[in-house]
Automatic annotation (TrEMBL):
Coiled coil, from the record: none
Alphabetically ordered keywords of this record: Hydrolase
GO molecular function, one term: hydrolase activity
Organism: Circinella minor
Protein name: Uncharacterized protein
Lineage: superkingdom: Eukaryota
Residue intervals of the AB hydrolase-1 domain: 33-295
Keyword Mitochondrion among UniProt keywords: no
PANTHER family associated with the record: EPOXIDE HYDROLASE
Amino acid sequence: MNPSDPSTFNHQYANVNGIHMHYIDENQSSKKVLLLLHGWPDLWCGWRQQIPYLTKLGYRVIAPTLRGCGETDAPTDTSAYGDRTISTDFAALLDHLEIPTVIVIGHDWGGHAAWRFTQFYPERVIGVSSFCVPYSPPAKEYTPIEEIVKLVPILTYQQYLTTPRAEQEINEHLEDFFKRLFRPFSEVKQSSIVDIYDMETKSLVVGRPLVPKSDLLPQKYQKPKIAGSLQYYKRGEVNFEESKDLDPIITKPALVILTDELPLPPPMIKIMEESVPNLETHTIENTSHWLLWEKSEESMRMDGLQGWKKELPLLTLNTKQDINQWAIGCDKDIGGFSEASLELTSQGKGKFSGNISLELPANREIVQSGYAAIRSKERDATMWGTPCWDTSLFRYLALRVRGDNRKYFVNIQTDTYFQTDLFQHRLFLRTPGQWETVMVPFRDFVFTSNGMIMPDQVEMFREKIKTIGISLTDRQEGPFSIEIDWIKAMNSEDTEGDNDRTPASSEID
């Protein structure tokens, strides 16, 4: 693959969701799949620098040309460009390629599409990342672009791009338009995007000084379908209608990479952090909106993507509110004599403790006693079902604990029909009485039902983990105590999910 020559990439085509779609598909044998979504008006080749690098890291890379652009069909009706329709394009393409799940990464409009795809098809997404476009929850009321511009004048260029005049001007001055749009950080006054429209001439190119070609532009490039691609600026009302009922909370591991060209206002950052609890944010300095090209090495490393995939916080036991999110049980609930409690210590840690008794109740139907357990409560169901954790990006369940010499088990319940089905593993404590981090490979958990190991073992559905618990079933009388700080899904420095991590970029030819 030669980033300067688009013809050297693996071009493919498919009929999906009623359109003929073009896409790039590299390293097809890999099961680790990235879906790269381009913005406007750079087409799939906006990722031309990243694709060769990512395939060397062992990923399969799918980079579609979005509807309305390049070699993909361009419907003429604006209603065909809504977020739900475009998300269905991606899902249909994955169905065509028989790919169940992906990490989705977008830039510009592709970043917006990545967020919405994660909301419309959460079961297809392992993690989501966006360059230059922060997450915005679906609006509850429709606001026309004309009203938005009154509040945020720097978006006047978006209003202009909805007009027939803009389409004509771009078509008649395409090369000069590209030269002005694709410019590095050092050559623009405020923003390479905002600077494309001049408030005095009320134009993109006409009446403005010509600018030289930047190295950001590839030597060879495809002409976009301007009429189709401009639909992305005209579809505001369609997007509102299709997205207004989406769950505004994204629980997937998420990464947003911004530039210092246009810093986000604090209220927008606050909304994003509240709406995406597992979000990591990075800023690449001294670069423009076109950081994929201008800072290709930093963006190829995704500036923190490895750290983003290192851990996913699941549960903490540091406040009274945390403690209230756990259920406690022991044989006393059925007439036995064991005692169990979960309390917050003065150091702000959860303490699961009590006393185990093997004495049987008078009820002769009870033939075995002597157990205690805690379990995280199921989160409140929404119209989209019960929220679950997607841990498929990680290899280990990690627990920060301090316990005694008793034999504890870790229990995972996935989103299955039978509530008694659990995946269990011994919680081996190497230093009883001291704090330690125990890391248990997800693949080592054993499938059980009603406490019995099942003869036909099945793989844990790690995309849908519903609850996590700790139990004590060693049937030894006497006191027990284990403190818990936090529980996370994690990778080590050398692992990435079930795969061993490829050497760092410096070791790749």
